[in-house]
Write a structure and sequence with these properties.
mainly alpha
Amino acid sequence: MITGIVAILGAVTGFIPAIMQYLTQKANNAQQLALAQLQLEAAKISGALQIDVARAQADIKDAEFVHSFASGTSGNRFVDALSVFVRPYITLVFFHFWLLIEGALFIYGVNSGYDLGQLAKLIWDDNTAASFAAILGFWFGTRMMTRGTEMAATLSVLPKK
């Protein structure tokens, strides 16, 4: 009987190093998997950051191109002055023309008995809003409208907290 117990214990103790090696290998594999996942996440964030940098550089080049009309001089003072004056003048003329039309619509609406809600729809319609957006977009650029999306690619791959 003792011989049987010793034989069984000898067999079991032979498995202990194999079991320890299995558990060690399992822990090493889990660590390697976690490290690989972190490296993949870092590569994804790095790629998104490169996209954002490229977009920012493209926006800078676009802005430089859009405003290049006023970058040089012709050598003729009258032509240069006219070049600088034309765009603001046209903007002011159209703005004053718009004020005249809106004022006439307001007077017409008040005389016709419209209430404030109806007057607001009459005076500030979609075309008026689009015109103002175009003018403000030209003079002040599109940076106001893109706030919060400067790093969209990077923000899209960052883990949620």
